[in-house]
């Protein structure tokens, strides 16, 4: 058998017996403080296993080689706490992840010599530190007149990455022209606080039949966090002409009626007297 036949035979074996990953799981996001499970199940397709290796940002942190002693070795890295009692070559358990755990993770399964066939799977894991609480609305007054300017701020405190904020007016997304953007503030702990302002001229048409105007702010860290806060703004009642006798100046009561009747009777008597004098 010449060299070309040998190469062709090896290629044929490689195609027919290629190692195949049957199930993989490297989540895109995780919450700070939680445990994370990475999975990489494989089918050797008749080949023999040489090694299973796990990497973060190109640096190996877990190795399993059946022919070595010990078979499994864990390499320490900042932000990676491998639970060695719960982990296997196909299932890695990372305990109490934090912001430094984030990175590009890869599992790599290799067959034995002479081909050393390899199958890999890669995904980026980002650890999220959720905000202290839901978004906070500040700067508003309980009541407004039509024509007043409503100014409000929506703030989401201490998260990573920064939360995305949105304003809604009566359930509708607020137009960009009404928004005031502020620079994201970063703390010494690398946590961010985001703020978005709303400046709205209050119009009569914005109030519902019940006399209120609703503003809502949402904070989102896609795809694992969404919270909102809503305030109901009341409008001052409109002034209208009120019957004098029913106004606060002259309370309408039975005594008021009596005074009115007495006044009318007196007036009638005077008019009658004047009429009699004129006739005589």
Short description:
This protein has about 280 residues and is mainly β.
Report on the structure:
By secondary structure, this protein is mainly beta. It is elongated. It has helices at 3-16, 254-279; strands spanning 20-25, 29-31, 36-43, 49-56, 59-64, 72-74, 91-94, 103-111, 118-128, 136-138, 143-144, 149-159, 164-169, 172-173, 179-181, 185-186, 192-201, 212-221, 225-235. The longest helix has 26 residues, at 254-279. Strand 18 and strand 19 form a beta hairpin. The chain is built from 2 helices and 19 strands. The strands form 4 sheets. A 6-stranded mixed β-sheet has the order 2-9-8-4-5-6, with no helix packed on it. Strands 10, 12, 15, 16 and 17 form a 5-stranded antiparallel β-sheet that branches.
């Amino acid at each position: 058998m010449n060299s070309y036949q040998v190469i062709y035979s090896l290629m044929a074996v490689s195609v027919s017996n290629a190692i195949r990953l049957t199930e993989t799981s490297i989540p895109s996001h995780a919450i700070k403080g939680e445990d994370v499970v990475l999975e990489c199940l494989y089918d050797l397709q008749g080949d023999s296993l040489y090694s299973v290796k796990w990497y973060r940002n190109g640096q190996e942190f877990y190795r399993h080689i059946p022919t070595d002693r010990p078979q499994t070795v864990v390499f320490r890295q900042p932000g990676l706490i491998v639970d060695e009692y719960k982990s296997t070559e196909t299932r890695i358990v990372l305990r109490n992840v934090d912001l430094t755990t984030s990175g590009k993770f890869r599992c790599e399964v290799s067959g034995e010599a002479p081909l050393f066939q390899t199958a890999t799977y890669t995904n980026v894991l980002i650890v999220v530190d959720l905000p202290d609480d839901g978004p906070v609305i500040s700067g508003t007054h309980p009541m407004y007149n039509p024509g007043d300017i409503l100014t409000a701020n929506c703030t989401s405190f201490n998260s990573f990455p920064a939360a995305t904020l949105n304003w809604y007016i009566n359930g509708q997304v607020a137009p960009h022209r009404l928004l005031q953007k502020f620079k994201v503030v970063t703390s010494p702990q690398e946590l961010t606080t985001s703020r978005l302002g709303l400046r709205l001229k209050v119009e009569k048409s914005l109030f519902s039949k019940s006399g209120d105007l609703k503003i809502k702010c949402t904070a989102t860290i896609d795809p694992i966090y969404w919270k909102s806060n809503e305030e109901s703004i009341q409008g001052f009642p409109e002034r209208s002409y009120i019957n004098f006798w029913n106004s606060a100046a002259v309370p309408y009561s039975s005594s008021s009626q009596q005074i009115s009747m007495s006044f009318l009777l007196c007036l009638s008597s005077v008019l009658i007297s004047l009429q009699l004098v004129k006739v005589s």
